[in-house]
Amino acid sequence: MKFPQTHTLKQIATIINCKFIGDDNFPVLGMNEIHVVEPGDIVFVDHPKYYDKALHSAATVILINKEVECPPNKALLISDDPFRDFNALTAYFKPFAKATSAIAATAKIGLGTVVQPGAFIGNNVTIGENCFIHANVSIYDNCTIGNNVTIHAGTVLGADAFYYKNRPEGFDKLLSGGSVVIENNVDLGALCTIDKGVTGNTLIKEGTKIDNQVHVGHDTVIGKKCLIASQVGIAGCVVIEDEVTIWGQVGVASAISIGQKAVVLAQSGVSKSLEAHKTYFGSPAEEARKKYKELASIRQIPSIIEKIN
After folding, report:
1. CA-CA distances (angstroms) from residue 5 to 27, 28, 62, 73, 135?
2. Measured between alpha carbons, how far is 230 from 250 in angstroms, rounded to an integer?
């Protein structure tokens, strides 16, 4: 998430009322999670296990809960609760804006696009040309949709990320300041849910077709010309490369990748990254041919036991 304009380190420290290490005028361009940070970004870290990863990431400002040695050409924001203060910055730069109409005045809708009655289109949404937005679709603020996109009834774009910190008093939600980007020629079935990124974008690339009742988690990237069948659940921060096929009721764990032109057969559970150009089945998903041989072997167990007895 980039800020509307460059801020100084001192200005950011003033917003969250914390100590800082670095030049007062050190430039701060935005804030992001560790997997998408760029130079000029703030990243937060609140556990010693991840200090080194954050300090040596592309981020140039580290929001951290311990005063440590500052790497060269970087700056630190010292906070007793980085999670809380990261939320405070999200709320400051991306505050919630109440809707005042079913289609916001700031929404931009291209020529030839049809918006059916009952659809909600939020603030600063951009929709391209020749799209069909069916009844009861909800498109939250700041989403971007390309040309020739069809979104069927009841689908929701831009709901919050499912991201919580477990505190003694209960779960504390990490605020979502990102968005959803849908490229050209994408079809989304009925009752799909595409969550926005925490600080970046959840992205569905050109030509991908998604069936009914599919969930896509925050910051996930789905490549070009993918086919995803009904009731698939994809967690956050997943990378699905081009021309992948995922059949019905597959579950995909967070922060993994699925290689180009892979096929994942129905009701599989993907718990680790999968290589390209292969077919997978089972839970945990493995190459289908290997899995089928294992299942055939298991079926022989009763006869083997009978012979032994």
Report:
1. 10, 9, 19, 21, 37
2. 9
**Could you give the residue numbers annotated as active site?**
218
CA distance 232 to 212: 9
Q: What is the pLDDT along the chain (309 residues), one digit of tens a residue?
A: 999 999 999 999 999 999 999 999 999 999 999 989 999 999 999 999 999 999 999 999 999 999 999 999 999 999 999 999 999 999 999 999 999 999 999 999 999 999 999 999 999 999 999 999 999 999 999 999 999 999 999 999 999 999 999 999 999 999 999 999 999 999 999 999 999 999 999 999 999 999 999 999 999 999 999 999 999 999 999 999 999 999 999 999 999 999 999 999 999 999 999 999 999 999 999 999 999 988 888 888 888 888 887
DSSP state of 160: P
* Residue at 22: amino acid letter: G
**Residue type (1 letter), 282:** G
Give the integer Cα–Cα distance in Å for 94 and 124. 12
CA atoms of 156 and 150, how far apart (whole Å) = 13
Backbone angles phi, psi at 14, to 5 degrees: -70, -40
Using DSSP bridges, classify how beta strands 193-195 and 215-216 pair: parallel, antiparallel or unpaired. parallel
The whole model's pTM is what?
A: 0.94
Q: Residue 263 CB: number of other CB atoms within 10 A?
A: 18
- Peptide bond just before 284 cis, omega within 30 deg: yes
d(CA 203, CA 9) in angstroms, rounded, equals 30
Specify the pairing of strand 170-173 against strand 209-210: unpaired
Which residue segments constitute the domains of the chain, with CATH numbers given? 2-93 (3.40.1390.10), 136-292 (2.160.10.10)
CB atoms within 10 A of CB 51: 16
